[in-house]
Specification:
Order of helices and strands of chain A: HHHHHHHHHHHHH
Shape of chain B: globular
Keywords (chain B): ATP-binding, Cell membrane, Membrane, Nucleotide-binding, Transport
Largest interface: A-B, 18 and 24 residues
Largest sheet of chain B: 6 strands, mixed
Distance between the termini of chain B: 19 Å
Number of domains of chain B: 2
Strand content of chain B: 25-35%
Subcellular location (chain B): Cell membrane
Structural class of chain B: alpha/beta
Largest sheet of chain A: none
Number of strands of chain B: 13
Protein name (chain B): Nitrate/nitrite transport system ATP-binding protein
Order of helices and strands of chain B: EEEEEEHEEEHHHEHEHEEHH
CATH architecture of the largest domain in chain B: 3-Layer(aba) Sandwich
Radius of gyration of chain A: 27 Å
GO molecular function, one term (chain B): nitrate transmembrane transporter activity
Strand order of the largest sheet of chain B: 9-10-11-6-12-13
Number of strands of chain A: 0
Number of domains of chain A: 3
Oligomer: heterodimer
Helix content of chain B: 25-40%
CATH topology of the largest domain in chain A: MetI-like fold
Number of helices of chain B: 8
CATH topology of the largest domain in chain B: Rossmann fold
Bound molecules: adenosine-5'-triphosphate, magnesium ion
CATH superfamily of the largest domain in chain B: P-loop containing nucleotide triphosphate hydrolases
CATH class of the largest domain in chain B: Alpha Beta
Shape of chain A: globular
Radius of gyration of chain B: 19 Å
Distance between the termini of chain A: 27 Å
Membrane topology (chain B): Peripheral membrane protein
CATH architecture of the largest domain in chain A: Orthogonal Bundle
CATH class of the largest domain in chain A: Mainly Alpha
Strand content of chain A: under 5%
């Protein structure tokens, strides 16, 4: 019994309340209304995913045909009937050289996904082998005071994911450490709030690209004489600056709109400034701060791809860009794999933030 | 009204003697709220003296300025004219010598009931040891019947239980004056009765001078030594004061059965309906 309650609590907390419905279904405890709820929460979403894949398949097929017809037509007008027939046969045979280049189908994307995983396996075993081979050598090199030899091969797709996560995490922490303290200070003072309001309103809508260029100008100069990883530094700082505004605004709002009753209690008890901030104001604005942080993380993840792409720092963004430049036969489907991975990770990050948000908020409300 | 002053002590009709000391003194109190349509004078030339260990209830029409007056005593609302003194000293802003029980319990929902009470106790008894402070907080929580809910989050308590914590928090800081603004207004009548009993039980023991606003005539009579009636605004002042001469400790039953009960009740209702 108590176990059931905790399971319920946990699934609610992470916003997956339907899991307990599912459990109840298997325990044959569901009455009719529950069954309808289960249909709505579980069956309908899955059905809509299948519907989406179906539509995608049909759309891709029609785009493929359009592109193929265009190719045949072009061969006909430029090089005559024979060339057109050859082109037709070539396309039908599935030859790589003449495939229409368009939106890939779900099956192709799935294939590319598996290729990428295979590729990762190969690369990581290569890397392991390399490290094993150079281990002894590196030991002596380090002993002699020389730099160790490191693996410099091409990163796999999975490596790119982790690089991106590292960057977004660093950017998020930067946003957290800048936006929350400033937000608290701004929230506490009406004068300060109105004085920085304009600045915030102006900087908030600035595009990630501009932030990147700005950070680039500064970091380039600062890191001139050091051999630090400036691409990483530039991209994580840009991500942090782009994404911190939601947290800044929400923190300031939370702090400035603390329930008047709480402030009165603090006044009657004559709490000192420190106690007032840490015992009353911050706890009561935590839910809003976390709402801000949740938006910040999702914005950070969204702009990260664009920033990596522009800053040429490794990660999913540059993966997408390279594939696009590459133009190989499976490049398009790899880009779409990346799209789903980016979306999926974004969703996961949001869930994690939602869970934390639900844990710290004192009015428990089920997130969507 | 029917009070005679002998050696400065306040003696009521059936001989209850209050110590002479004036705890709370409101002199020519005035409150003006600036509004877009010009100044609005809520209170003007309001005079009221409340003795030490006295329980005073305040009734008056909605919007007449009861909350305004109480929050001025608490120091949470600026005084536009006149002054308020506690034991002869003019008040300057809020302070723990005047404990407040608000209409909404105003507990910090992220804290447990014990932490909520401790928030005040820690502030008022900074030199006590941690366990002494814990004991004080627990003592008052027990007094309000929450011995099983020390570690419950305030947000998990019912309205009635939250207001019990509010009562414990107010008494635990041992204020000179206790200010209550319709503390039971949001509760159902059964819970309200329970909390009145709890309040009066603790009060009988601690005898903290109390000023309580209420809309409930029976509550006003049951709890008070004097019921203060305010005139309707604007420019509200004290309209009438009724001494309640029931002996203490009182029970609800003895009060209801008392011959004077309906006389008192009629007096108050006549005032409100005049
Ligand atoms: N901050 C304010 N600014 C302007 N007017 C105010 C303000 N606070 C209260 N008032 C006005 O002052 C009058 C008295 O308000 P107050 O809240 O003191 O009444 P009350 O007697 O406590 O009423 P109730 O019994 O409904 O609680 C009301 O007319 C109200 O509209
Ligand atoms: Mg009021």
């Amino acid at each position: 019994m108590s176990q059931g309650i905790t399971l319920n609590k946990i699934t609610k907390l992470i916003g997956l309340g339907f899991l307990s419905d599912l459990k109840a279904l298997f325990a044959r405890k569901l009455v009719k209304e529950d069954f309808i709820k289960f249909l709505r929460k579980f069956v309908v979403p899955i059905a809509s995913i299948f519907l989406f894949i179906g539509l995608w398949h049909l759309g891709a097929k029609s785009l493929y045909n359009t592109e193929a017809n265009y190719k045949i037509e072009k061969a006909l007008t430029e090089r005559g009937q024979v060339a057109a027939d050859e082109m037709k046969a070539c396309i039908a045979s599935g030859d790589v050289s003449c495939q229409p280049n368009t939106l890939p189908s779900p099956a192709q994307v799935w294939g590319s996904f598996q290729t990428l995983l295979e590729d990762h396996k190969v690369i990581s075993s290569d890397k392991a082998a390399f490290i094993e081979k150079t281990a002894a050598l590196n030991e002596t090199r380090v002993a002699e005071g020389k730099d160790a030899i490191v693996y410099t091969g091409r990163p796999s797709f999975v490596d790119q994911i982790f690089t991106s996560l590292k960057t977004v995490f660093a950017g998020f922490l930067l946003a957290l450490f800048i936006a929350v303290p400033i937000g608290v200070v701004i929230g506490l003072s009406k004068t300060l709030r109105s004085s920085v309001n304009w600045l915030i309103q102006i900087f908030k809508p600035v595009s990630p690209v501009v932030w990147l260029l700005l950070v680039f100008m500064i970091v380039k100069t600062l890191t001139k004489n050091s051999n630090s990883d400036s691409a990483f530094i530039i991209s994580f700082i840009s991500v942090g600056l782009c994404s911190m505004w939601a947290t800044l605004v929400n923190t300031a709002m939370g702090v400035s709109s603390v329930d008047k009753d709480y402030i009165n209690v603090a006044k009657v008890l004559k709490l000192g400034a420190f106690q007032k901030v840490f015992k009353v104001i911050l706890p009561s604005s935590l839910p809003l701060i976390f709402t801000g942080l949740r938006i910040t993380l999702s914005v950070a993840w969204m702009v990260l791809i664009a920033i990596e792409l522009l800053a040429q720092s490794p990660g999913l963004g540059s993966f997408v860009w390279e594939e696009f430049q590459n133009g190989a036969i499976d490049s398009n489907s790899k880009i779409i794999v990346a799209m789903f991975v980016i979306g999926g990770i974004g969703f996961l990050l949001d869930r994690i933030m939602l869970t934390i948000q639900n844990m710290v908020s004192f009015n428990k409300n089920d997130g969507i | 009204m029917s009070t005679n002053t002998i050696n400065n002590d306040l003696v009521t009709e059936n001989g209850i003697v209050f110590p002479s000391e004036v705890m709370l003194d409101l002199k020519h109190l005035k409150k003006v709220y600036p509004t877009p349509k010009g100044d609005y004078t809520v209170l003007e030339d309001l005079n009221l003296q409340i003795m030490k260990e006295e329980f005073v209830t305040i009734i008056g029409h909605s919007g007449c300025g009861k909350t305004t007056m109480l929050s001025m005593i608490a120091g949470l609302n600026e005084i536009s004219g006149g002054n308020i003194s506690v034991l002869g000293n003019h008040i300057k802003g809020p302070g723990p010598d005047r404990g407040v029980i608000f209409q909404s319990p105003s507990l910090m929902p992220w804290m447990t009931s014990l932490q909520n009470v401790l928030l005040g106790v820690n502030q008022v008894f900074p030199h006590a040891t941690k366990s002494q402070r814990n004991d004080i907080a627990k003592y008052y929580l027990q007094k309000v019947g929450l011995e099983d809910a020390f570690n419950k989050k305030a947000s998990e308590l019912s309205q009635g239980m939250q207001q019990r914590v509010g009562i414990a928090r107010a008494f635990a800081i041992k204020p000179k004056v206790l200010l209550l603004d319709e503390p039971f207004g949001m509760l159902d009548s059964l819970t309200r009765g329970e909390l009145q009993d709890i309040l009066i039980e603790i009060w009988n023991k601690e005898k903290i001078t109390a000023v309580m606003i209420t809309h409930d005539v029976d509550e006003a009579i049951f709890l008070a030594d004097r019921v203060v009636m305010m005139t309707s605004g604007p420019k509200a002042k004290i309209g009438d004061i009724l001494n309640i001469n029931f002996e203490r400790p009182r029970t609800r039953k003895s009060v209801l059965e008392h011959n004077d009960y309906y006389k008192y009740r009629k007096h108050l209702i006549d005032f409100l309906e005049h």
